[in-house]
Amino acid sequence: MRYTLICILLAVASTLTPGFAIALDIQLPPETAVFKPSKLPGYMLAQRNCMICHSVHYIQSQPLTSTRDYWEATVKKMRVPFGAKFADEDIPVIVDYLVKTYGAERNSGTAALNTAGKPEIVALTATSEPADAKALLAANNCMACHAIDKQIVGPAFRNVVAKYASKANAATLVARNIRDGGSNKWGPVSMPAFGHLSDAEADVLAHYVLSQ
Ligand code: HEC
Ligand code: HEC
Fold it and tell me: Whose CA is nearest to atom 5 of ligand 1?
């Protein structure tokens, strides 16, 4: 696990040194490489915020008896001192998902959202609203892993444009890849799936990326 983290940090560091490429080949077993799907709003927040620096294995390897307090302390530690960036009000929502999925409250039923379940987060997942690209990028934290003209965790959007320049169905392919996530198209690091995006939202994002 430590190895995975170091590799991701190396991959990030290598973007600071143009021309320096490192070949990494880390294959995670697919069934454990992603957060367990859940109706809890913290599921998507964890997907967006907790795979930026390390794999889900860090979460999966915590004792199943871990309490809410323990998860809260762990999540807070990711911000200070580790430097993760997520909003204060997202902390209880993420903690609620973690303790009910990987900790001591596993059997308490995921259907019952406690008061930490914030309606506005659920609203972000609504499939009907047409949204503009910038709002979608912000709501899904895309720019934590991407930039327009340099690689961060994922490829620079300009490089995506270059890769798809000659493809007639570029927007369709890119929209599908945004929804499905995955790895090995650009490198070994995975992009989480954004399956909650509607066709229209994925399409807006794909067109935005391809117009950079
Ligand atoms: C900015 C980078 C960063 C982000 C984002 C991040 N972490 Fe971490 N995480 C770390 C570092 C650094 C460690 C310590 C690594 C080590 O000791 O090998 C760590 C370790 C952990 C561990 C192992 C136990 C421990 O206390 O060391 C858990 C569990 C964990 N993170 C959960 C999370 C969760 C949940 C999130 C999302 C809310 C998250 N992380 C987001 C950097 C991050
Ligand atoms: C946790 C980090 C992370 C987040 C968050 C993230 N991505 Fe990615 N993204 C990646 C990685 C890593 C890849 C390369 C995957 C691969 O090699 O197949 C990637 C690949 C892509 C690609 C290239 C797909 C292709 O067809 O080749 C696009 C476009 C993209 N991301 C857009 C987005 C958008 C839009 C969002 C927000 C909805 C987003 N990403 C959120 C990490 C992330």
Answer: 84
Rounded Cα distance between 99 and 112, Å, is 13
In order of 83, 132, 171, 197, the CA distances from 178 in angstroms are 26, 16, 10, 9
What residues contact 115, with CB distance under 8 A and at least 6 apart? none
- The alpha carbon of 163 and the centre of ligand 1 are apart by a number of angstroms equal to 33
Give 10-residue mean pLDDT values along the chain (212 residues): 47 47 54 80 93 89 92 94 92 96 79 38 38 81 88 91 89 92 87 85 90 90
Domain boundaries, the chain: 33-125, 129-212
If one looks up domain 129-212 in CATH, what number appears? 1.10.760.10
Cβ < 6 Å from ligand 2: which residues? 48, 51-52, 140-142, 144-146, 153-155, 160, 173-174, 177-178, 182-187, 189-192, 194, 205, 209
Topology of the domain covering 33-125: Cytochrome Bc1 Complex; Chain D, domain 2 (1.10.760)
CA–CA gap between residue 177 and residue 205 (Å, rounded): 11
For atom 7 of ligand 1, the residue with the nearest CA is 78
Q: Which atom of ligand 1 is nearest to the CA of 49?
A: 37
Q: 160: CA distance to ligand 2 center in Å?
A: 10
Q: Which pTM does this prediction carry?
A: 0.50
Topology agreement, domain 33-125 and domain 129-212: yes
